[in-house]
Amino acid sequence: MAISSEQAPSVETEVERLTTGADAAADTVKLDPMRWAALLVLLVSAFMDLLDGTIANVAAPSMQQELAAGYSAIQWVLVGYQLAFALTLILGGRLGDIFGRKRMFLIGVAGFTLTSLTAGLAQEPWQLVISRVLQGAFSGIMVPQVLSIIHVTFSDKERGTAFALHGLVGGLAATLGLALGGLMVEWDLFGLSWRLIFLINVPIGLLGLLYGSKVITESKAPQALRLDMLGLVLATGGLVMLVYPLLQGRELGWPAWGYASMIASLPVLLGFVAWQRRKARKDGSPLVELGLFRTRSFSSGLAVNLIFYIGMGMFTIGWTLYMQIGQGWSPMRAGLTSLPFCIGAFLTATTSVMVLVPKFGRKAMQVGAVVLVAGLGSYIWVAGEYGSDVTSWHLVIPLFLIGLGFGTVATPLPLIVTSEVPHKDAGSASGLVNTNTQLGFAIGGALVSVVFFGGLAGNTGAGVDQQIPQLRQDLVATAGVTPGEAETIAAAYRTCSVDRAGEKDLTTVPESCTVAPLQDQKVASVLAGYQEDATGTSFAASFQTLLWVFIGVTAVVFLLMFAIPRRLRQEGEAAPEAEQATVA
Protein backbone atom coordinates (compact mmCIF):
# COMPACT_ATOMS: atom_id res chain seq x y z
CA MET A 1 0.00 0.00 0.00
CA ALA A 2 1.39 3.41 -0.89
CA ILE A 3 2.20 5.66 2.04
CA SER A 4 0.26 8.88 2.59
CA SER A 5 1.77 12.35 2.62
CA GLU A 6 2.15 12.59 6.36
CA GLN A 7 4.40 9.49 6.33
CA ALA A 8 6.67 10.72 3.56
CA PRO A 9 10.24 11.70 4.46
CA SER A 10 10.20 15.11 2.73
CA VAL A 11 7.83 18.00 3.37
CA GLU A 12 7.86 18.72 -0.37
CA THR A 13 6.42 15.35 -1.41
CA GLU A 14 3.40 15.20 -3.67
CA VAL A 15 0.07 13.89 -2.44
CA GLU A 16 -0.39 10.17 -2.75
CA ARG A 17 -3.96 8.93 -2.42
CA LEU A 18 -4.29 7.11 0.90
CA THR A 19 -5.74 3.72 0.10
CA THR A 20 -7.71 1.84 2.69
CA GLY A 21 -9.52 -1.41 2.32
CA ALA A 22 -12.76 0.47 1.72
CA ASP A 23 -11.17 2.78 -0.83
CA ALA A 24 -9.47 -0.03 -2.67
CA ALA A 25 -12.74 -1.83 -2.96
CA ALA A 26 -14.42 1.34 -4.12
CA ASP A 27 -11.88 1.75 -6.91
CA THR A 28 -12.77 -1.67 -8.33
CA VAL A 29 -16.53 -1.14 -8.18
CA LYS A 30 -18.28 -0.02 -11.34
CA LEU A 31 -19.11 3.66 -11.18
CA ASP A 32 -22.71 4.61 -10.49
CA PRO A 33 -24.32 5.37 -13.89
CA MET A 34 -26.65 7.93 -12.23
CA ARG A 35 -23.85 9.86 -10.51
CA TRP A 36 -24.09 12.98 -12.69
CA ALA A 37 -27.86 13.16 -12.23
CA ALA A 38 -27.26 12.78 -8.50
CA LEU A 39 -24.72 15.60 -8.64
CA LEU A 40 -27.37 17.89 -10.12
CA VAL A 41 -29.64 17.27 -7.12
CA LEU A 42 -26.76 17.80 -4.70
CA LEU A 43 -25.68 21.06 -6.34
CA VAL A 44 -29.21 22.47 -6.48
CA SER A 45 -29.64 21.69 -2.78
CA ALA A 46 -26.29 23.29 -1.92
CA PHE A 47 -27.23 26.34 -4.00
CA MET A 48 -30.58 26.59 -2.18
CA ASP A 49 -28.87 26.54 1.22
CA LEU A 50 -26.11 29.02 0.32
CA LEU A 51 -28.54 31.37 -1.39
CA ASP A 52 -30.86 31.33 1.61
CA GLY A 53 -28.09 32.48 3.93
CA THR A 54 -27.30 35.49 1.73
CA ILE A 55 -30.76 36.44 0.54
CA ALA A 56 -32.21 36.71 4.06
CA ASN A 57 -29.78 39.53 4.88
CA VAL A 58 -31.13 41.57 1.97
CA ALA A 59 -34.77 41.00 2.96
CA ALA A 60 -34.26 41.70 6.69
CA PRO A 61 -35.54 45.32 6.62
CA SER A 62 -38.76 44.22 4.89
CA MET A 63 -39.28 41.44 7.46
CA GLN A 64 -38.76 43.88 10.30
CA GLN A 65 -41.27 46.36 8.89
CA GLU A 66 -44.05 43.91 7.99
CA LEU A 67 -43.87 41.85 11.20
CA ALA A 68 -43.28 44.90 13.42
CA ALA A 69 -40.28 43.05 14.78
CA GLY A 70 -37.61 44.50 17.02
CA TYR A 71 -34.00 44.74 15.94
CA SER A 72 -33.00 41.85 18.22
CA ALA A 73 -35.67 39.57 16.72
CA ILE A 74 -34.44 40.23 13.19
CA GLN A 75 -30.89 39.62 14.33
CA TRP A 76 -31.99 36.20 15.58
CA VAL A 77 -33.64 35.48 12.24
CA LEU A 78 -30.15 35.79 10.73
CA VAL A 79 -27.92 34.62 13.59
CA GLY A 80 -30.20 31.76 14.65
CA TYR A 81 -29.83 30.16 11.24
CA GLN A 82 -26.04 30.53 11.24
CA LEU A 83 -25.66 29.19 14.78
CA ALA A 84 -27.90 26.14 14.27
CA PHE A 85 -26.18 25.42 10.95
CA ALA A 86 -22.68 25.57 12.44
CA LEU A 87 -23.61 23.39 15.42
CA THR A 88 -25.15 20.53 13.42
CA LEU A 89 -22.56 20.16 10.64
CA ILE A 90 -20.27 17.72 12.47
CA LEU A 91 -23.27 15.74 13.73
CA GLY A 92 -24.84 15.70 10.27
CA GLY A 93 -21.66 14.41 8.68
CA ARG A 94 -21.29 11.56 11.16
CA LEU A 95 -24.97 10.62 10.93
CA GLY A 96 -24.43 10.15 7.20
CA ASP A 97 -21.52 7.77 7.87
CA ILE A 98 -23.62 5.78 10.35
CA PHE A 99 -27.16 5.71 8.94
CA GLY A 100 -26.54 6.40 5.26
CA ARG A 101 -25.65 9.58 3.41
CA LYS A 102 -28.59 9.44 1.03
CA ARG A 103 -31.03 8.94 3.89
CA MET A 104 -29.67 11.87 5.90
CA PHE A 105 -29.51 14.07 2.80
CA LEU A 106 -33.18 13.46 2.05
CA ILE A 107 -34.13 14.05 5.70
CA GLY A 108 -32.22 17.32 5.57
CA VAL A 109 -33.90 18.40 2.34
CA ALA A 110 -37.35 17.49 3.70
CA GLY A 111 -36.78 19.46 6.90
CA PHE A 112 -35.30 22.42 5.04
CA THR A 113 -38.30 22.48 2.70
CA LEU A 114 -40.84 22.26 5.53
CA THR A 115 -39.19 25.01 7.57
CA SER A 116 -38.95 27.20 4.46
CA LEU A 117 -42.73 26.87 4.20
CA THR A 118 -43.29 27.77 7.86
CA ALA A 119 -40.89 30.73 7.55
CA GLY A 120 -42.76 32.00 4.51
CA LEU A 121 -46.10 31.72 6.33
CA ALA A 122 -44.91 33.24 9.63
CA GLN A 123 -47.23 35.86 11.10
CA GLU A 124 -45.24 36.68 14.24
CA PRO A 125 -41.53 37.38 14.74
CA TRP A 126 -41.11 34.39 17.09
CA GLN A 127 -42.57 32.07 14.45
CA LEU A 128 -40.01 33.28 11.91
CA VAL A 129 -37.14 32.92 14.41
CA ILE A 130 -38.07 29.33 15.28
CA SER A 131 -38.48 28.44 11.60
CA ARG A 132 -35.07 29.87 10.76
CA VAL A 133 -33.32 28.06 13.63
CA LEU A 134 -34.85 24.74 12.54
CA GLN A 135 -34.04 25.54 8.93
CA GLY A 136 -30.39 26.03 9.88
CA ALA A 137 -30.37 22.73 11.79
CA PHE A 138 -31.80 20.75 8.86
CA SER A 139 -29.36 22.51 6.55
CA GLY A 140 -26.55 21.31 8.84
CA ILE A 141 -27.77 17.75 8.29
CA MET A 142 -28.15 18.18 4.53
CA VAL A 143 -24.99 20.06 3.54
CA PRO A 144 -22.29 17.63 4.81
CA GLN A 145 -23.80 14.86 2.72
CA VAL A 146 -23.12 16.86 -0.46
CA LEU A 147 -19.32 16.70 -0.20
CA SER A 148 -19.30 13.17 1.25
CA ILE A 149 -21.52 11.76 -1.52
CA ILE A 150 -19.33 13.45 -4.14
CA HIS A 151 -16.25 12.00 -2.44
CA VAL A 152 -17.48 8.38 -2.43
CA THR A 153 -19.43 8.42 -5.72
CA PHE A 154 -16.93 9.81 -8.24
CA SER A 155 -13.56 8.51 -9.36
CA ASP A 156 -10.40 10.52 -8.75
CA LYS A 157 -10.45 11.87 -12.30
CA GLU A 158 -14.11 12.92 -12.11
CA ARG A 159 -13.98 14.24 -8.57
CA GLY A 160 -12.14 17.38 -9.66
CA THR A 161 -14.94 18.26 -12.07
CA ALA A 162 -17.58 17.61 -9.41
CA PHE A 163 -15.78 19.78 -6.84
CA ALA A 164 -15.29 22.51 -9.45
CA LEU A 165 -19.01 22.61 -10.11
CA HIS A 166 -19.67 22.64 -6.36
CA GLY A 167 -17.32 25.60 -5.93
CA LEU A 168 -18.93 27.41 -8.83
CA VAL A 169 -22.37 26.95 -7.30
CA GLY A 170 -21.10 28.35 -4.01
CA GLY A 171 -19.67 31.46 -5.66
CA LEU A 172 -22.83 32.04 -7.67
CA ALA A 173 -25.07 31.68 -4.62
CA ALA A 174 -22.97 34.05 -2.52
CA THR A 175 -23.06 36.81 -5.13
CA LEU A 176 -26.45 36.29 -6.76
CA GLY A 177 -28.10 36.31 -3.33
CA LEU A 178 -27.80 40.09 -3.25
CA ALA A 179 -29.32 40.59 -6.70
CA LEU A 180 -32.07 37.97 -6.39
CA GLY A 181 -33.01 39.13 -2.90
CA GLY A 182 -33.30 42.69 -4.12
CA LEU A 183 -35.39 41.69 -7.12
CA MET A 184 -37.79 39.55 -5.10
CA VAL A 185 -38.36 42.19 -2.46
CA GLU A 186 -38.59 45.17 -4.82
CA TRP A 187 -40.83 43.47 -7.39
CA ASP A 188 -43.13 42.15 -4.63
CA LEU A 189 -44.33 39.27 -6.81
CA PHE A 190 -47.88 38.13 -5.96
CA GLY A 191 -47.80 40.54 -3.02
CA LEU A 192 -45.53 38.14 -1.14
CA SER A 193 -42.63 40.57 -0.61
CA TRP A 194 -39.92 38.90 1.54
CA ARG A 195 -41.96 35.71 1.97
CA LEU A 196 -41.10 34.64 -1.57
CA ILE A 197 -37.42 34.12 -0.66
CA PHE A 198 -38.52 31.24 1.58
CA LEU A 199 -41.53 29.93 -0.32
CA ILE A 200 -39.53 29.52 -3.54
CA ASN A 201 -37.59 26.76 -1.75
CA VAL A 202 -40.72 24.62 -1.39
CA PRO A 203 -41.22 23.45 -5.00
CA ILE A 204 -37.45 23.14 -5.48
CA GLY A 205 -37.16 21.06 -2.32
CA LEU A 206 -40.04 18.78 -3.32
CA LEU A 207 -38.47 18.16 -6.72
CA GLY A 208 -35.15 17.45 -5.02
CA LEU A 209 -36.80 14.88 -2.75
CA LEU A 210 -38.56 13.08 -5.60
CA TYR A 211 -35.61 13.11 -8.00
CA GLY A 212 -32.95 12.56 -5.36
CA SER A 213 -34.65 9.45 -4.01
CA LYS A 214 -34.31 7.90 -7.47
CA VAL A 215 -30.84 8.94 -8.62
CA ILE A 216 -28.71 9.07 -5.45
CA THR A 217 -27.15 5.77 -4.39
CA GLU A 218 -26.99 4.99 -0.69
CA SER A 219 -23.58 4.78 0.97
CA LYS A 220 -22.32 4.55 4.53
CA ALA A 221 -19.25 3.47 6.49
CA PRO A 222 -18.42 -0.20 5.71
CA GLN A 223 -18.21 -1.15 9.38
CA ALA A 224 -20.91 -0.42 11.96
CA LEU A 225 -20.34 2.87 13.83
CA ARG A 226 -22.08 4.22 16.92
CA LEU A 227 -23.14 7.79 17.56
CA ASP A 228 -20.85 9.36 20.16
CA MET A 229 -23.33 11.17 22.43
CA LEU A 230 -20.79 12.51 24.94
CA GLY A 231 -18.61 13.74 22.09
CA LEU A 232 -21.67 15.41 20.59
CA VAL A 233 -22.43 17.22 23.87
CA LEU A 234 -18.82 18.38 24.28
CA ALA A 235 -18.48 19.52 20.65
CA THR A 236 -21.82 21.34 20.66
CA GLY A 237 -21.17 22.98 24.01
CA GLY A 238 -17.70 24.12 23.02
CA LEU A 239 -18.86 25.51 19.69
CA VAL A 240 -21.81 27.36 21.29
CA MET A 241 -19.47 28.94 23.82
CA LEU A 242 -17.13 30.02 21.00
CA VAL A 243 -19.43 30.91 18.12
CA TYR A 244 -22.40 32.58 19.89
CA PRO A 245 -20.35 35.44 21.38
CA LEU A 246 -18.72 35.98 17.99
CA LEU A 247 -22.06 36.21 16.20
CA GLN A 248 -23.77 38.41 18.80
CA GLY A 249 -20.81 40.33 20.21
CA ARG A 250 -21.41 43.68 18.54
CA GLU A 251 -25.19 43.70 19.12
CA LEU A 252 -24.63 42.93 22.83
CA GLY A 253 -21.82 45.44 23.22
CA TRP A 254 -19.10 42.81 23.69
CA PRO A 255 -19.98 41.98 27.33
CA ALA A 256 -17.42 40.44 29.69
CA TRP A 257 -19.31 37.14 29.78
CA GLY A 258 -18.80 36.81 26.02
CA TYR A 259 -15.02 36.91 26.39
CA ALA A 260 -15.26 34.52 29.36
CA SER A 261 -17.36 32.13 27.27
CA MET A 262 -14.86 32.12 24.41
CA ILE A 263 -11.96 31.51 26.81
CA ALA A 264 -13.87 28.73 28.59
CA SER A 265 -14.62 27.06 25.25
CA LEU A 266 -10.93 26.12 24.96
CA PRO A 267 -10.86 23.55 27.81
CA VAL A 268 -14.22 22.18 26.69
CA LEU A 269 -12.93 21.62 23.15
CA LEU A 270 -9.68 20.16 24.51
CA GLY A 271 -11.82 17.80 26.59
CA PHE A 272 -13.65 16.86 23.39
CA VAL A 273 -10.32 16.00 21.73
CA ALA A 274 -9.24 13.89 24.71
CA TRP A 275 -12.55 12.04 24.68
CA GLN A 276 -12.30 11.42 20.94
CA ARG A 277 -8.91 9.76 21.42
CA ARG A 278 -10.30 7.56 24.19
CA LYS A 279 -13.42 6.76 22.14
CA ALA A 280 -11.29 5.75 19.13
CA ARG A 281 -9.32 3.31 21.29
CA LYS A 282 -12.46 2.03 22.99
CA ASP A 283 -14.73 1.11 20.08
CA GLY A 284 -13.47 2.94 16.96
CA SER A 285 -16.59 5.16 16.77
CA PRO A 286 -15.54 8.73 17.61
CA LEU A 287 -17.63 11.66 16.40
CA VAL A 288 -14.50 13.02 14.67
CA GLU A 289 -11.73 10.79 13.37
CA LEU A 290 -8.69 12.62 14.79
CA GLY A 291 -6.36 10.48 12.72
CA LEU A 292 -7.39 12.58 9.73
CA PHE A 293 -5.38 15.48 11.15
CA ARG A 294 -2.18 13.47 10.78
CA THR A 295 -2.72 13.67 7.04
CA ARG A 296 -0.86 16.70 5.73
CA SER A 297 -3.32 17.58 3.00
CA PHE A 298 -6.21 17.49 5.49
CA SER A 299 -4.68 19.52 8.32
CA SER A 300 -2.90 22.09 6.16
CA GLY A 301 -5.94 22.45 3.90
CA LEU A 302 -8.20 23.12 6.91
CA ALA A 303 -5.77 25.75 8.20
CA VAL A 304 -5.74 27.57 4.86
CA ASN A 305 -9.53 27.24 4.61
CA LEU A 306 -10.12 28.73 8.09
CA ILE A 307 -7.84 31.75 7.61
CA PHE A 308 -9.12 32.40 4.09
CA TYR A 309 -12.76 32.43 5.16
CA ILE A 310 -11.99 34.73 8.07
CA GLY A 311 -10.94 37.22 5.38
CA MET A 312 -13.95 36.45 3.20
CA GLY A 313 -16.28 36.80 6.20
CA MET A 314 -14.93 40.30 6.82
CA PHE A 315 -15.10 41.21 3.15
CA THR A 316 -18.64 40.04 2.39
CA ILE A 317 -20.18 41.82 5.41
CA GLY A 318 -18.09 44.96 4.99
CA TRP A 319 -18.80 45.02 1.26
CA THR A 320 -22.57 44.86 1.86
CA LEU A 321 -22.38 47.66 4.45
CA TYR A 322 -20.25 49.79 2.13
CA MET A 323 -22.62 49.48 -0.83
CA GLN A 324 -26.07 49.48 0.79
CA ILE A 325 -25.57 51.82 3.75
CA GLY A 326 -22.46 53.80 2.89
CA GLN A 327 -23.37 54.45 -0.73
CA GLY A 328 -27.14 54.10 -0.23
CA TRP A 329 -27.55 51.66 -3.10
CA SER A 330 -30.63 49.47 -3.35
CA PRO A 331 -30.20 45.71 -2.83
CA MET A 332 -30.80 45.20 -6.55
CA ARG A 333 -28.10 47.68 -7.57
CA ALA A 334 -25.69 46.22 -5.03
CA GLY A 335 -26.37 42.77 -6.42
CA LEU A 336 -25.88 43.84 -10.02
CA THR A 337 -22.66 45.61 -9.03
CA SER A 338 -21.37 42.25 -7.74
CA LEU A 339 -21.69 40.58 -11.17
CA PRO A 340 -18.00 41.18 -12.13
CA PHE A 341 -17.02 39.24 -9.01
CA CYS A 342 -19.41 36.48 -10.04
CA ILE A 343 -17.98 36.37 -13.57
CA GLY A 344 -14.41 36.24 -12.28
CA ALA A 345 -15.25 33.43 -9.85
CA PHE A 346 -17.08 31.57 -12.63
CA LEU A 347 -14.03 31.68 -14.91
CA THR A 348 -11.62 30.28 -12.33
CA ALA A 349 -13.88 27.99 -10.28
CA THR A 350 -13.83 25.24 -12.87
CA THR A 351 -10.39 25.81 -14.40
CA SER A 352 -8.62 25.92 -11.03
CA VAL A 353 -9.77 22.42 -10.03
CA MET A 354 -9.83 20.81 -13.47
CA VAL A 355 -6.69 22.35 -15.01
CA LEU A 356 -4.61 24.71 -12.88
CA VAL A 357 -4.26 22.86 -9.56
CA PRO A 358 -3.79 19.38 -11.14
CA LYS A 359 -1.04 20.82 -13.39
CA PHE A 360 0.64 23.43 -11.20
CA GLY A 361 -0.44 22.36 -7.71
CA ARG A 362 -0.36 24.84 -4.86
CA LYS A 363 1.46 27.38 -7.04
CA ALA A 364 -1.80 27.98 -8.92
CA MET A 365 -3.54 28.79 -5.64
CA GLN A 366 -0.70 31.10 -4.61
CA VAL A 367 -1.00 32.96 -7.91
CA GLY A 368 -4.72 33.24 -7.17
CA ALA A 369 -3.88 34.79 -3.79
CA VAL A 370 -1.66 37.35 -5.55
CA VAL A 371 -4.47 38.20 -7.98
CA LEU A 372 -6.83 38.58 -5.02
CA VAL A 373 -4.42 41.03 -3.39
CA ALA A 374 -4.23 42.99 -6.66
CA GLY A 375 -8.03 43.23 -6.70
CA LEU A 376 -8.17 44.34 -3.07
CA GLY A 377 -5.46 46.92 -3.68
CA SER A 378 -7.29 48.36 -6.70
CA TYR A 379 -10.50 48.51 -4.64
CA ILE A 380 -8.66 50.49 -1.95
CA TRP A 381 -7.55 52.99 -4.60
CA VAL A 382 -11.05 53.31 -6.09
CA ALA A 383 -12.71 53.78 -2.68
CA GLY A 384 -10.19 56.45 -1.71
CA GLU A 385 -10.20 58.23 -5.08
CA TYR A 386 -13.97 58.51 -5.56
CA GLY A 387 -15.33 58.35 -2.00
CA SER A 388 -19.09 58.91 -1.97
CA ASP A 389 -19.09 59.54 -5.75
CA VAL A 390 -18.09 55.97 -6.64
CA THR A 391 -20.18 54.21 -9.29
CA SER A 392 -20.74 50.57 -10.15
CA TRP A 393 -18.53 50.98 -13.21
CA HIS A 394 -15.60 52.10 -11.06
CA LEU A 395 -15.74 48.74 -9.26
CA VAL A 396 -15.77 46.46 -12.30
CA ILE A 397 -12.01 45.77 -12.47
CA PRO A 398 -11.42 45.42 -8.69
CA LEU A 399 -14.37 43.04 -8.27
CA PHE A 400 -13.41 41.02 -11.34
CA LEU A 401 -9.88 40.52 -10.01
CA ILE A 402 -11.19 39.62 -6.54
CA GLY A 403 -13.53 37.09 -8.17
CA LEU A 404 -10.67 35.55 -10.16
CA GLY A 405 -8.58 35.20 -7.01
CA PHE A 406 -11.48 33.86 -4.95
CA GLY A 407 -12.31 31.16 -7.47
CA THR A 408 -8.69 30.05 -7.77
CA VAL A 409 -8.13 29.81 -4.01
CA ALA A 410 -11.49 28.72 -2.60
CA THR A 411 -12.72 26.13 -5.09
CA PRO A 412 -9.85 23.59 -4.78
CA LEU A 413 -9.82 23.66 -0.97
CA PRO A 414 -12.57 21.03 -0.34
CA LEU A 415 -10.88 18.70 -2.84
CA ILE A 416 -7.46 19.17 -1.22
CA VAL A 417 -8.79 18.69 2.32
CA THR A 418 -10.65 15.46 1.44
CA SER A 419 -8.16 14.10 -1.10
CA GLU A 420 -6.73 11.51 1.30
CA VAL A 421 -9.82 10.87 3.42
CA PRO A 422 -10.91 7.21 3.57
CA HIS A 423 -14.45 6.63 2.30
CA LYS A 424 -15.60 5.45 5.73
CA ASP A 425 -14.85 8.90 7.20
CA ALA A 426 -16.17 10.97 4.29
CA GLY A 427 -19.14 12.29 6.28
CA SER A 428 -17.08 13.22 9.32
CA ALA A 429 -14.51 14.98 7.12
CA SER A 430 -17.22 16.85 5.22
CA GLY A 431 -18.76 18.04 8.47
CA LEU A 432 -15.38 19.30 9.65
CA VAL A 433 -14.74 21.16 6.39
CA ASN A 434 -18.11 22.93 6.56
CA THR A 435 -17.78 23.68 10.29
CA ASN A 436 -14.32 25.07 9.63
CA THR A 437 -15.74 27.36 6.94
CA GLN A 438 -18.60 28.57 9.15
CA LEU A 439 -16.18 29.23 12.02
CA GLY A 440 -14.05 31.31 9.65
CA PHE A 441 -17.08 33.34 8.58
CA ALA A 442 -18.12 33.83 12.23
CA ILE A 443 -14.66 35.08 13.25
CA GLY A 444 -14.54 37.32 10.17
CA GLY A 445 -17.97 38.72 11.00
CA ALA A 446 -16.84 39.44 14.57
CA LEU A 447 -13.73 41.23 13.29
CA VAL A 448 -15.96 43.59 11.28
CA SER A 449 -16.96 45.14 14.62
CA VAL A 450 -13.32 45.99 15.31
CA VAL A 451 -11.89 46.59 11.85
CA PHE A 452 -14.86 48.35 10.21
CA PHE A 453 -17.08 49.82 12.93
CA GLY A 454 -14.18 50.50 15.31
CA GLY A 455 -12.99 53.39 13.16
CA LEU A 456 -16.32 54.47 11.65
CA ALA A 457 -17.09 57.18 14.22
CA GLY A 458 -13.58 58.62 13.92
CA ASN A 459 -13.75 58.55 10.11
CA THR A 460 -17.15 60.25 10.26
CA GLY A 461 -15.83 62.99 12.54
CA ALA A 462 -12.84 63.58 10.28
CA GLY A 463 -15.05 63.75 7.20
CA VAL A 464 -17.46 66.20 8.82
CA ASP A 465 -14.58 68.41 9.97
CA GLN A 466 -13.56 68.82 6.33
CA GLN A 467 -17.15 69.83 5.45
CA ILE A 468 -17.63 72.39 8.23
CA PRO A 469 -16.11 75.51 6.52
CA GLN A 470 -18.23 75.10 3.36
CA LEU A 471 -21.27 74.02 5.40
CA ARG A 472 -21.23 77.27 7.41
CA GLN A 473 -21.25 79.30 4.19
CA ASP A 474 -24.09 77.28 2.66
CA LEU A 475 -26.19 77.54 5.80
CA VAL A 476 -25.86 81.33 5.81
CA ALA A 477 -26.48 81.64 2.04
CA THR A 478 -29.25 79.04 1.62
CA ALA A 479 -30.95 78.54 5.00
CA GLY A 480 -30.82 82.25 5.90
CA VAL A 481 -29.23 81.81 9.34
CA THR A 482 -26.68 84.08 11.00
CA PRO A 483 -22.98 83.11 11.17
CA GLY A 484 -23.38 82.40 14.91
CA GLU A 485 -26.39 80.15 14.27
CA ALA A 486 -24.48 78.40 11.46
CA GLU A 487 -21.69 77.65 13.94
CA THR A 488 -24.19 76.11 16.39
CA ILE A 489 -25.89 74.07 13.66
CA ALA A 490 -22.56 72.78 12.32
CA ALA A 491 -21.50 71.65 15.81
CA ALA A 492 -24.86 69.89 16.35
CA TYR A 493 -24.58 68.27 12.92
CA ARG A 494 -21.12 66.90 13.77
CA THR A 495 -22.30 65.46 17.08
CA CYS A 496 -25.33 63.87 15.40
CA SER A 497 -23.20 62.32 12.61
CA VAL A 498 -20.64 60.85 15.01
CA ASP A 499 -23.33 59.49 17.36
CA ARG A 500 -25.21 57.93 14.46
CA ALA A 501 -22.03 56.21 13.26
CA GLY A 502 -21.54 54.74 16.74
CA GLU A 503 -24.99 53.13 16.97
CA LYS A 504 -25.20 49.34 16.92
CA ASP A 505 -28.31 49.59 14.75
CA LEU A 506 -27.42 52.04 12.00
CA THR A 507 -31.11 52.81 11.38
CA THR A 508 -31.48 54.21 14.92
CA VAL A 509 -31.80 57.99 15.19
CA PRO A 510 -29.68 59.22 18.15
CA GLU A 511 -31.11 61.77 20.55
CA SER A 512 -28.48 64.26 19.43
CA CYS A 513 -30.04 64.26 15.97
CA THR A 514 -33.40 65.52 17.29
CA VAL A 515 -32.16 68.80 18.78
CA ALA A 516 -33.93 71.99 17.71
CA PRO A 517 -31.17 73.53 15.51
CA LEU A 518 -31.38 70.52 13.14
CA GLN A 519 -35.18 70.47 12.78
CA ASP A 520 -35.67 73.57 10.62
CA GLN A 521 -36.72 72.48 7.10
CA LYS A 522 -34.33 74.84 5.31
CA VAL A 523 -31.46 73.69 7.51
CA ALA A 524 -32.40 70.03 7.05
CA SER A 525 -32.42 70.40 3.24
CA VAL A 526 -28.89 71.82 3.34
CA LEU A 527 -27.63 69.13 5.74
CA ALA A 528 -29.12 66.24 3.73
CA GLY A 529 -26.54 66.46 0.96
CA TYR A 530 -23.68 66.86 3.41
CA GLN A 531 -24.86 63.92 5.47
CA GLU A 532 -25.03 61.68 2.40
CA ASP A 533 -21.51 62.69 1.39
CA ALA A 534 -20.15 62.20 4.92
CA THR A 535 -21.71 58.75 5.18
CA GLY A 536 -20.28 57.65 1.84
CA THR A 537 -16.82 59.02 2.61
CA SER A 538 -16.62 57.58 6.13
CA PHE A 539 -17.85 54.14 5.05
CA ALA A 540 -15.32 54.20 2.21
CA ALA A 541 -12.51 54.98 4.67
CA SER A 542 -13.60 52.18 7.04
CA PHE A 543 -13.91 49.75 4.15
CA GLN A 544 -10.39 50.69 3.01
CA THR A 545 -9.11 49.70 6.46
CA LEU A 546 -10.94 46.39 6.22
CA LEU A 547 -9.45 45.74 2.78
CA TRP A 548 -5.94 46.36 4.12
CA VAL A 549 -6.60 43.79 6.85
CA PHE A 550 -7.91 41.35 4.23
CA ILE A 551 -4.66 41.84 2.29
CA GLY A 552 -2.76 40.88 5.44
CA VAL A 553 -4.97 37.81 5.91
CA THR A 554 -4.37 36.81 2.28
CA ALA A 555 -0.61 37.12 2.82
CA VAL A 556 -0.91 34.67 5.72
CA VAL A 557 -2.94 32.35 3.48
CA PHE A 558 -0.21 32.58 0.81
CA LEU A 559 2.45 31.50 3.33
CA LEU A 560 0.29 28.71 4.79
CA MET A 561 -0.10 27.26 1.30
CA PHE A 562 3.55 26.15 1.49
CA ALA A 563 2.35 23.55 4.02
CA ILE A 564 0.01 22.05 1.42
CA PRO A 565 1.63 19.21 -0.59
CA ARG A 566 2.98 20.48 -3.91
CA ARG A 567 0.17 19.01 -5.97
CA LEU A 568 -2.51 16.37 -6.00
CA ARG A 569 -1.33 13.11 -7.54
CA GLN A 570 -3.55 12.15 -10.44
CA GLU A 571 -5.24 8.79 -10.65
CA GLY A 572 -2.94 6.23 -12.22
CA GLU A 573 0.15 8.44 -11.94
CA ALA A 574 3.18 6.56 -10.65
CA ALA A 575 4.86 7.88 -7.58
CA PRO A 576 8.54 8.79 -7.71
CA GLU A 577 10.69 5.85 -6.74
CA ALA A 578 11.97 7.57 -3.62
CA GLU A 579 8.43 8.09 -2.38
CA GLN A 580 7.11 4.58 -2.93
CA ALA A 581 6.80 2.21 -0.03
CA THR A 582 4.84 -0.83 0.91
CA VAL A 583 3.27 -1.85 4.13
CA ALA A 584 3.52 -5.43 5.23
Give an account of the 3D structure.
- This protein has 584 residues and is an all-alpha fold.
- 75% of the residues lie in helices and 0% in strands.
- It is built from 20 helices and no strands.
- The N and C termini lie close together (8 Å).
- Residues 1-28 and 571-584 have low confidence and may be disordered.
- The chain crosses the membrane at residues 36-60, 72-92, 104-122, 134-154, 161-180, 192-212, 224-244, 256-275, 302-322, 334-357, 364-383, 395-418, 439-457, 545-564.
- It is a multi-pass membrane protein.
- It is found in: Cell membrane.
- The rounded distance between the terminal residues' Cα atoms is 8 Å
Summarize the helix and strand pattern as letters.
Answer: HHHHHHHHHHHHHHHHHHHH
Q: With helices defined by DSSP (H or I, 4 residues minimum), what is the helix count? A: 20
Radius of gyration: 26 Å
Largest sheet: none
Unreliable stretches covering 5 or more consecutive residues: 1-28, 571-584
As a percent range, the share of helical residues equals over 70%
Molecular shape:
globular
Count the beta strands.
0
Structural class: mainly alpha
Strand content: under 5%
User: Would you tell me the overall average pLDDT?
Assistant: 82
Membrane topology: Multi-pass membrane protein
Main location: membrane
Transmembrane segments: 36-60, 72-92, 104-122, 134-154, 161-180, 192-212, 224-244, 256-275, 302-322, 334-357, 364-383, 395-418, 439-457, 545-564
Domain Major facilitator superfamily (MFS) profile: 38-569
